[in-house]
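$ ./design --mode recover --in tokens.txt
reading tokens...
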């Protein structure tokens, strides 16, 4: 009997030791997991931003809306963030990059199509003088956009735009236009994407132009680009889609919330712009939103590292939106104070 009691005690001791070992192992695994989470929490998600109240407000917002069980938690399906492109994600001075592309592309297309050179300003452009076309103002801009975006097929447009982005350089910075994205803004996009936000580009520029770089530069797929769009037409004979000179959607000012509503179908909880053209998108995001929201404006205040401009600028004018933003408690990002780096090549 004593023999059996000894055996039972030995078995019980082994079982207790095994259970204790398993429990200890689980505790160690949990401690390791918590340590890893603590380590990740200590990693700065926005290293190119200075440690200002602006940066902290952005991090606080993302933290509270992604904390499960918190009163401000936003389900993943409703984490919609919209960003303007020109002047918000990349530089826009001294002219919008797409406009510069359109001038270059119009020149190349007109060289190949002599019938387009009947107008003296286009003939001068082909000869290397863009001044006559630029002097016509909006009329010249519209004409250049019409030729560069519509006079060729969508496939030809993509090839020409991609080649331009791969080679054309900014005169002041001597860098490719595609390399003039703002590093702090790219970090913000990445931070939001890691926290299950669906990020959209909502730009006054054309969708077809932005689609050629949105994935490479911002990790934003082409289906999440909303821009100004020409009307598309299906050609049965060639089984292809072409663009017509008619505008289908102008994605600026009131066109931004209209485009978001029509295409996304959900109101953003975060919207970021830099000019009066973004005003309606920002105020719509901040008004009657069923979730916590954040509206942000990038104010260009650094004339040394980039450009300093606002209400007096013909490109990216920021006047009324800045006034309303301050009055309504939107976050005004001061480029000089809030960015410790602007471009990745610095």
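writing sequence...
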């Amino acid at each position: 009997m004593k023999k059996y009691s000894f055996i039972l005690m030995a078995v019980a001791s082994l079982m207790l030791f095994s259970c204790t070992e398993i429990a200890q192992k689980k505790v160690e695994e949990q401690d390791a997991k918590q340590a890893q989470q603590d380590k990740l929490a200590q990693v700065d998600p926005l290293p190119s931003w200075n440690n200002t109240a602006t940066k902290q407000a952005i991090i606080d917002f993302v933290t509270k809306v992604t904390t499960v069980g918190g009163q401000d938690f936003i389900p993943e399906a409703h984490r919609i963030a919209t960003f303007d492109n020109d002047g918000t994600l990349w530089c826009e001075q001294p002219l919008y990059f797409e406009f510069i592309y359109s001038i270059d592309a119009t020149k190349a297309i007109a060289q190949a199509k002599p019938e387009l050179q009947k107008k003296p300003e286009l003939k001068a452009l082909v000869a290397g003088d863009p001044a006559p076309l630029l002097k016509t103002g909006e009329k010249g801009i519209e004409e250049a956009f019409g030729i560069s975006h519509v006079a060729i097929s969508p496939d030809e447009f993509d090839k020409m735009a991609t080649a331009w982005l791969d080679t054309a350089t900014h005169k002041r910075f001597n860098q490719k236009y595609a390399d003039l994205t703002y590093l702090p803004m790219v970090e913000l996009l990445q931070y939001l994407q890691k926290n299950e936000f669906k990020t959209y580009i909502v730009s006054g520029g054309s969708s077809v132009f932005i689609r050629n770089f949105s994935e490479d530069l911002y990790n934003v797929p082409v289906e999440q680009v909303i821009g100004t769009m020409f009307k598309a037409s299906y050609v049965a004979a060639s089984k292809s889609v072409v663009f017509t000179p008619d505008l289908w959607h102008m994605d600026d000012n009131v066109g931004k919330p209209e485009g978001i509503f029509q295409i996304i179908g959900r109101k953003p909880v975060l919207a970021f712009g830099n000019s009066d053209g973004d005003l309606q998108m920002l105020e719509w995001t901040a008004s009657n939103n069923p979730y916590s929201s954040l509206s942000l404006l990038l104010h260009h205040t650094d004339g040394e590292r980039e450009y300093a401009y606002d209400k007096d600028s013909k490109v990216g004018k920021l006047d009324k939106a800045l006034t309303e933003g301050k009055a309504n408690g939107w976050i005004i990002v001061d480029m000089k104070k809030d960015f410790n780096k602007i471009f990745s090549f610095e």
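exit 0
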